[in-house]
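Quick log. Single chain, no ligands specified.
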Amino acid sequence: MNARKVLVTGGAGFIGSHLVDALMKLGYKVRVIDDLSQGKLENVSRWEGSPGFEFVKGDVTEEDVVLDAVKGCDAVFHLAANPEVRIGDPRVHFKQNVYATYVVLEAMRANSVKKIVFTSSSTVYGDASVLPTPEDYSPLIPISMYGACKLASESLITGYSKTFDISAVILRLANIVGSRSRHGVIVDFIKKLRKNPNRLEVLGDGEQTKSYLLVDECVEAILRAFEAMDSEIQVYNVGSEDAINVKRIAEIVIEELKLKDVKITYTGGIEGRGWLGDVKKMWLDISKIKKLGWKPKHSSSEAVRLATRVLKKEV
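-> predicted structure:
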């Protein structure tokens, strides 16, 4: 690959820690910065004491901390973010997503680090009228603060890339599931069914339909895009080749927990959405990243089932 020492922001989190595992196995020197507000030290504890691994407990909105963390690195994988998609304080979203991205980019500029990989989100598309949605779809009209802040971060990265000669890869991720996840519909369903194995409340009308991808396959896509990085800005969709609705996810989780006669109820939500800002249908066109030689190994339903089997032991 085209770097030897890398910084992973949010590297103790869900996707970040799996990325760290992969990078370490590939022989990279890996520095992780994470404030542990979402991530867990145990997610990367296997690498403590290993040559080339360094953990920095720090907030990516703190300029001096990030400036030091970037020093000596050849590339930055920027995964740190507020992961809450539902309604939240806009100031928190702005600080932990947009401002944090600015801080990382400024630290890169100060240290002459010329490569960044950014995990964006399918939520930047909003309610897309074209499914599956390609990367050049427009206009991009996110319907949540999370999506808006991811799109703003993309814009900052492209602006810095063009102005300061920084190579950038932007990855618009579908719903990523698997071990170490602590958010999302599968985790929510498992927790609800543990409290009451006879009834499961589903937010919205259950027809919300989206793509789901296992975290290991997501990491493979991230690394493949990194391998192919050049001097241009590259944007890739990363997801499965199909989609699944929430009703079917509920059924799969119930099946995997080996429960019987569970009554599934629906809140109806807002126009069938689980919450304000919930994208009703999301299915990404992944033909661009497939040209790099990557493709998902599982369908959305298979990803949900496999993730449930792991998460029921962890949640």
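The mean pLDDT is 96.
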